[in-house]
């Protein structure tokens, strides 16, 4: 177990909507400010989506991304990680567009198609800030988040082979680990792998500590010492699972993409608040927080001087 813990902060995502929290960053300025504050608080990696600045709806637009990516790069040394997950209503080409434009050090890469259902959240609200929100949420119950083997290979070849981008391999179930092993066996990806195991999404593996242990053991069997393990969980499970995982040797991910709360019943006022909380837990457990430079070395990244923004 490395003493160093990489903290990733997922700043806004594509699941939560403006009605759910006044603190969810929407505009490019807000996303940049939240990312910079999270980096100052201790996040070595910032994981980024974009939103329409008028409505808050998730957008794949490279033009919107480019309104905040340069500002974040100029304001901190954190690794900038662009989502290729986008949202369930985007095509693969749309999901890739910003990364193709920006040529980042890292992107996310979902390791399998799945049901990804966040429709039940819509039942918690009667009034909506924007008309699109309720229908967008409810539509997820009848959608498949597509990530076929051909899709995954296209992302690897386009971004990895094309730009030297490396990946946050997002694994929402045990089968996704085996999918990643398939690409490793074919030589399409190489160690060190950054394996992000995800719990508590309706359609993926549940937020149960036994599942956390099983995912860890399976990853050990498949990847040996050729990977860096990271953990996050959705909603109320966020801090509990990050803590369990960290005590087992994992890196961690927090942020308003994954949970809007800082503790039960209390909205987080910022991404940085969640980063500060998990940092305290990490340090009180006797581990230390990795700097961006250390994260780059651990994950074999190309460096912030080799991006296109």
Main sheet record = 8 strands, parallel, barrel
- The total strand number stands at 16
How many helices in DSSP terms? Answer: 10
Strand order of the largest sheet: 2-3-6-7-10-11-12-13
Q: How many structural domains does the protein architecture include?
A: 1
| Pattern of helices and strands | EEHEEEHEHEEHEHEHEHEHEEEHEH
Unreliable parts:
none
User: How many angstroms does the end-to-end distance come to?
Assistant: 35 Å
Average pLDDT: 97
CATH class bucket: Alpha Beta
Bin the strand percentage: 15-25%
User: CATH topology, what is it called?
Assistant: TIM Barrel
Detailed description of the structure:
With 309 residues, the protein is of the alpha/beta class. It has one domain (4-306): Alpha-Beta Barrel (TIM Barrel). The chain has helices at 28-41, 62-75, 92-102, 132-139, 149-163, 174-185, 209-223, 238-247, 271-284, 292-299; strands at residues 4-5, 7-10, 45-48, 50-51, 58-59, 79-82, 106-110, 114-115, 144-145, 166-171, 193-199, 227-233, 251-254, 261-263, 266-267, 288-289. The strands form 5 sheets. It has an 8-stranded parallel β-barrel with strand order 2-3-6-7-10-11-12-13, surrounded by 8 helices. The chain has a two-stranded parallel ribbon with strand order 1-16. The mean pLDDT is 97.
What is the strand and helix layout of this fold?
Blueprint: E1 4-5, E2 7-10, H1 28-41, E3 45-48, E4 50-51, E5 58-59, H2 62-75, E6 79-82, H3 92-102, E7 106-110, E8 114-115, H4 132-139, E9 144-145, H5 149-163, E10 166-171, H6 174-185, E11 193-199, H7 209-223, E12 227-233, H8 238-247, E13 251-254, E14 261-263, E15 266-267, H9 271-284, E16 288-289, H10 292-299
Parallel strand pairs: 1-16, 2-3, 2-13, 3-6, 6-7, 7-10, 10-11, 11-12, 12-13
Antiparallel strand pairs: 4-5, 8-9, 14-15
Helix pairs in contact: 1-2, 1-9, 2-3, 3-5, 6-7
Keywords: Metal-binding, Transferase, Zinc
InterPro entries: Aldolase_TIM, BKACE
Cofactor: Zn(2+)
